[in-house]
What we know:
Strand content of chain B: under 5%
Shape of chain A: globular
Number of domains of chain A: 5
Number of domains of chain B: 1
Shape of chain B: globular
Oligomer: heterodimer
Distance between the termini of chain A: 49 Å
Largest sheet of chain A: 7 strands, mixed
Radius of gyration of chain B: 10 Å
Largest interface: A-B, 26 and 16 residues
CATH architecture of the largest domain in chain A: 3-Layer(aba) Sandwich
Structural class of chain A: alpha/beta
Number of helices of chain B: 4
Number of helices of chain A: 29
Largest sheet of chain B: none
Strand order of the largest sheet of chain A: 14-13-28-27-26-15-16
CATH class of the largest domain in chain A: Alpha Beta
Amino acid sequence: xxxxxxxxxxxxxxxxxxxxxxxxxxxxxxxxxxxxxxxxxxxxxxxxxxxxxxxxxxxxxxxxxxxxxxxxxxxxxxxxxxxxxxxxxxxxxxxxxxxxxxxxxxxxxxxxxxxxxxxxxxxxxxxxxxxxxxxxxxxxxxxxxxxxxxxxxxxxxxxxxxxxxxxxxxxxxxxxxxxxxxxxxxxxxxxxxxxxxxxxxxxxxxxxxxxxxxxxxxxxxxxxxxxxxxxxxxxxxxxxxxxxxxxxxxxxxxxxxxxxxxxxxxxxxxxxxxxxxxxxxxxxxxxxxxxxxxxxxxxxxxxxxxxxxxxxxxxxxxxxxxxxxxxxxxxxxxxxxxxxxxxxxxxxxxxxxxxxxxxxxxxxxxxxxxxxxxxxxxxxxxxxxxxxxxxxxxxxxxxxxxxxxxxxxxxxxxxxxxxxxxxxxxxxxxxxxxxxxxxxxxxxxxxxxxxxxxxxxxxxxxxxxxxxxxxxxxxxxxxxxxxxxxxxxxxxxxxxxxxxxxxxxxxxxxxxxxxxxxxxxxxxxxxxxxxxxxxxxxxxxxxxxxxxxxxxxxxxxxxxxxxxxxxxxxxxxxxxxxxxxxxxxxxxxxxxxxxxxxxxxxxxxxxxxxxxxxxxxxxxxxxxxxxxxxxxxxxxxxxxxxxxxxxxxxxxxxxxxxxxxxxxxxxxxxxxxxxxxxxxxxxxxxxxxxxxxxxxxxxxxxxxxxxxxxxxxxxxxxxxxxxxxxxxxxxxxxxxxxxxxxxxxxxxxxxxxxxxxxxxxxxxxxxxxxxxxxxxxxxxxxxxxxxxxxxxxxxxxxxxxxxxxxxxxxxxxxxxxxxxxxxxxxxxxxxxxxxxxxxxxxxxxxxxxxxxxxxxxxxxxxxxxxxxxxxxxxxxxxxxxxxxxxxxxxxxxxxxxxxxxxxxxxxxxxxxxxxxxxxxxxxxxxxxxxxxxxxxxxxxxxxxxxxxxxxxx
Amino acid sequence: xxxxxxxxxxxxxxxxxxxxxxxxxxxxxxxxxxxxxxxxxxxxxxxxxxxxxxxxxx
Lengths: 953, 58
């Protein structure tokens, strides 16, 4: 069980990686008989049997290295003393791990190591949590014959340039674990061993850690056996006393972490080795960027104000909730239920999200509930439901290790989903082929030991054309998997689709004029994708955030079905979700047209199930989406909005439109950690709780439901679900949940795909991948194994959908000749509310505009110059970064900083099917500028005024 | 928006496209938004036909 906090102990380490084999091998170690899978090392076998052979250079996250010579053993019939880490077990082998000879040899090794290591164990930050100390104890080291006066590295200067960890070469034993972790686990290859012999030293390429290519993932720190590479927080605070398993609240990878604490003070977050999404790996955000949870900007007291031009007034919970409830009731009485709505958050738990949509549907009486997935992955929901019958990615992350060709389209995993990217790169280094479809030359296209076979640098906005052209090649050249289609898909729809893609106007040659992708490259990429045994497609917001986002998702699904790449490991369609709980927020019924489990609100039988459970009648009419709510606010028919954990003013497109809609409302309730940008327009502020302060579940991009566990008392006093419940009770609803587990029980009762999910089961099993139902009692790592999920027609067959390329209405012209596309970088996250309040800002202090050298030169712009970025919608200013990563005619920026507000520039064009904004294509002009735009100055002034808090009376 | 939906279904051809457009709007639009469309004669013919169907079906 993982529920109870565990006393602190290092995570189990079996020395070498697990071997997977159906062949079992029997051997004896120190007279004890055991059976292990073939390929297991002697070291691991001994550890599995409960022993511990001394070791320094071995750890089970890395391949055996055999360099420290401490793990020597004797094996009957073998000469000498082989290293147990590099010796595989053999049938009948008899191993001795402790003999006088071994003891003598090991002591000799330790003496040499310790002769160049400080003996400051008592004051060392790794004291009592150090593998070198353990090894010294294990070998019985009592003296060092060589003394300490000889040459040594004890005065070597430490490198504290990284904000989160320090490197102290004096404590380094040059075991290479850090270098190998950077290579094998993270795949960045930033570290090396410089020098030879006695001069050998770990080096980030001759630079400081901060100045090097290091991405601060923490893999080297986790692998270090001593205090040489260690979190600064350990030096500052001390050794943790307990550990709680929880789930990261950043991206959709959903890494499992051990929160290691002293009392309620978080000492460090360490990736959990048994986490099935991350297998013990992490990135700079989840590993280190959690300081925001106690940042001074955090608001922990409820606040209210009559009008948004007044300062905030701090009040108690009862007064704030009473004020909010009275306003909501009054608006409902005057304007009807349709004037009220809510927004759920992809950052909050499933339980919290479910409660917010329940509050809107059952309490407010409308279906005006939407979620931030509207602006990221709503096209995934639409597109995969239309083709596969259900709105979710088909694989688990481990599946990538069986892929032979990987198509990455509109995703930049090394920045946005770094822990998955590390797995992907592991597979690429094993020889899988890579195709990148992206307007930018993202890092995956070429980085150490990884090179894409093809990079199709398409014109932004032409995804559908590129995918249709690939389909054209696959169908016309006879590369289709006919057997799969006959067995698994609707025949007529396939034939309609095949006829469509075969039309000459869809050939790569014909479409090159719009896509700007050379036809030869596209043909080669299509052939490569169709010719390998297992082809997997990974995509991100570069697919969905377009006027044809949903069409692109369906085109991807078509391609996967046409090539038979569905229903087994190594294949599939994999949406890389932006936020930690995008999948969950969608699953939980956050969209205005559907209840949890993707069932349409107009479906009487589903509605009846909820009506009976909740004891209220539900409106069968789909509610308003976020942009519709904002439009309705401006025409006076929508007046009150409860927003949990989302900053629509910064994250949604066309800031002016969002601001005007919010300003027109009479009751905006913001429930968040910080006074975010949206709160400038709020009347009620309800303080939120961080992921460290509440219990619930997140569902990651592989449909994996994992526990988030409360490790400290909420600074505001309440978990977020308790705040929503209190608001519901203030409105007169008789909600009586005594825990978030009770909310999950209700979700399971009302949602077929969650039927077998409970906190109790998650505590026992670690995680579950939905559907968890009678047909899949233990969950579903891979979907559509024997057939597609049966849709409303009940057939369970894949549906090909014809996707016609229709250019966006957003066009470049004389005034706006460049195309702007937006994205994220590694160290910052989304609107930056969290990461900007951590030391991660050292890597990215401001949003920069990437521009090609030729475009920069023709505008007289040099690296670092401030430029004006203008579109038909608005303008802002920011500094330029001149780079060939972007093609001529394309510029790129991030949206992490409110002072830049890239969304002042983006338009309100959106996906035809789901309204998902077209963030990825905006026609712009870039010109030199002297300073901030008038908008930026006005906005700075507005937020300063809107954030005033009245002094206590 | 309605024109954009119609354009994406247009490949299915006249009547089928109008049916698909109408069904899409029925699934995802609030009924007040449909009612608020008012005179739809200025829309793309497929979108206009879709709204005509939606009105007949109520």
